[in-house]
Amino acid sequence: xxxxxxxxxxxxxxxxxxxxxxxxxxxxxxxxxxxxxxxxxxxxxxxxxxxxxxxxxxxxxxxxxxxxxxxxxxxxxxxxxxxxxxxxxxxxxxxxxxxxxxxxxxx
Length: 107
Prior knowledge:
With 107 residues, the chain is α+β, with helices and mostly antiparallel strands. The chain contains three helices and four strands.
């Protein structure tokens, strides 16, 4: 697969109280946004925190884009990405991921 690829990850996070969940959400957002400009081939990164508060929603979504599949593969083992994963520890209790090629619309 060649061309740009979108990488979307959503997490459910630990936290017994609303304050603990809020702190967990902020930590994930801060750590992943800290990757901006630090990983070659990572062309866009955005982190959203859920505000719906419905019981089936994920807490955080990572929306990122990579130059190509090779850049995404390199990201998986990049030391900065691994540092973030280690810092999050067992904060995540559920993880969902979708990767797909970005098609140019010509519009």
